[in-house]
Structures are given as C-alpha cells and as structure tokens.
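Below is how a single chain appears once it has passed through the pipeline. First comes the sequence as given, then the structure the pipeline wrote out for it. We keep one example in the README because the format questions we get most often are answered faster by looking than by reading.
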Amino acid sequence: MSSAWLLPEHIADVLPSQARRIEELRRELLDMARSYGCELVMPPLIEHLESLLSGAGHASGLKTFKLVDQLSGRTLGLRADMTPQAARIDAHLLNRQGVTRLCYCGPVAHTRPDGFHTSREPLQFGVEVYGHAGLEADLEVQDLALDALRRAGLKGLVLDLGDARLLQGLLDGRQLSPEALAALSAKDVSTLRELTADLPSATRDAICALTRLYGGLEVLEQAKALLPDHALIRAALADLAWLYGHLEAVHPEVKLGFDLADLTGYAYYSGVRFGVYAAGSPDAILRGGRYDEVGAVFGRRRPAVGFSLDLKAIVSLGAQTPFAAAVRAPWGEDASLRAAVRDLRHQGHTVVCVLPGHEHEGDEFECDRELVRGGSGWELRPL
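Resulting structure:
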C-alpha cells in the first residue's frame, strides 16, 4: 500500500520559495507580453477532445488525459497544450480581420513526461500572433521569446532554427510515419533508412542528409548543395537566412544555429520553427514556430506564429535572486499599530506580524526591519 503523501511520478508540489519565484516571473512575463501589444486569454482546462486535438497531431493525442463528461457522455480532454485553444479563440470567437496578439499562462497535463527530468504538469506560458504571414511576425515572436528568457535570468542561450517546409518539399505530397519522424529528429540514420525504404532513393538520401545539417550559417550553403531544387526548400532557406541576419544584429549575445532535422511539433508547424536552449538544460526550454493551418479546423485559416515554455522549468534554471526583505511587527489590539501595519502594506512592504507565543520562532521571511513604538508613534527600525 502506497503512502498517502506520495504523488504520481513526474508530479510534484511547488513549495513556498519556488512558488513565489514562479508567480513573480508569471506576472513579469505577462506584463512584458502586454508591452508588445498582447492580450491575455484564459482558455478552459478541459474541452471536447476533438477540439483539443484538432490539427495537433498524433503525439498530442497520446499526451492527453481523457475522461467522460458526466453531463453529455462525450469524451473530454485535459489540455496538454494551450496553443490549439488560442487558435480556436482567434478563429472562432474573436473573428478579427487584422493582426491579433494573444498571450496566456496556465497549467497543462501530460500523460507522459517529455524527458527524464520534466514535469507532467507544466505551467505553460505562451504568446501567439495571428493575421500576418510575413517574417516580421516570426521575428517579433523570437524577439519576445528571447526577452522572456532574459527576464528569467537565464544565461548561455542558444537558438536553433529549422523549417517544416524542408521536409514538405522533400516528400512532395508523401507522408512519413510518426516513427520515421522520430528517427529523423533523433538523427538515427539506420532506422530512418529502414522506415523510408518505400520512398525513391533520391528522396530517401535527401531526408537522411537532413540529419547532418546542423551547425552555424554554413549549414544553409550545405543544404543548397545537398537538397533538391524545390520551391518550398528555396523559400525555407531564404527565410532562415533572413531571420538569422536580423537576430544576429539585435541579439549578439545569443548563439544562433540551425538544426534542419529537428521536427518536434511537425504535425502542426507549417514553416519556420525554433527551439531555445540554456546552460544547465539538455533539452529545449522553449519551442515555437509558424502553424498557419491550425485555424482552418475551426473554420478560419489564419497565419499564425508563436511559442511556449514551462515556467516551472525556467525558474529551476534561473539565478536565485534574493527576495525583498520583510518588516517584522508585533501583534496587538492597538488601533494605531494596526493602522501602521496596514499603511506599510499599502506601500508595498511585506509585514509579518508575530503572533502571541511565537516571539522566539524563526521568520518564514527574512526581516531586516522592525516596527516599534517610538516617541511620535510607530516607526521602522533596522534589525
């Protein structure tokens, strides 16, 4: 019999110190997104399963918890990703003609973890830009993503670019199995050759060549030499070069590169995609890209690009910034004392009242000042 206090694997409580850091970063990132013109939306935690999985692909279906609605008998899903929900809101509820910028932050749940050290209950923060098909929207989203990671205090950022159109151009209407896509992302060439044996040899060789196309700016020239001359491939390589140039000019401290075989999220990405890595994490801490087709399943195809990250994972990697010190105050029935405490809290100070009988216990907060009675009333003194 398991102990009552044990939690499921890859599920954990967030204790006060970490919770404070997560909440402070959540507020800061939402305020930052608003400074870019983003509007906050709050999609529901559960939806009809077909709505949650629309355009999201096979992988999202496997990651989604499913349950039966006791009112209608229909199958519901506990969201594993908020991106399709934001696309539904833009396409079906807001129904605007121009550019719409949305942001969100909320919990999602995964049936299986994405990695050995990842949570099955991420706190997903994301930004989506709808209504503009040009690279300007892609660049704005990437700028915002890098700004968000800087706000979190992360160092050693590496941004890898890729494009779903490269594989689309190579396949030219054909499809790859999920297993073949996984082998391609893992750069497992032998397995990839086995799973693509039914493709023409030239196509198979070009797909296998993607596994070698990672690194710096030279990768784009190598891709031109190794990949066939196809309109989608030409457009993808030109767009990647354009983005690289603009990112390099504005973010010189970020290491830029390409990984043309990374197809994470290929099921709904339709163009440029990117992942960001940071010191201390073996996996991407943020992923994003263009997904123009997802809105079509909600009745309105719209250009769309965005990114998302897990706030819990970001906070665990960031620098441990000290919290603002608090004020310690005695508890009392004196109206002037209570008024002084209330006035300090209105000014933004954290005031911890010491309850009767607990005067010699340690404070949960680090207090550097004390509220004491002086000659002219209650005043602050350093501890």
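The CA atoms of residues 246 and 287 lie 19 Å apart.

See the next section for the split statistics.
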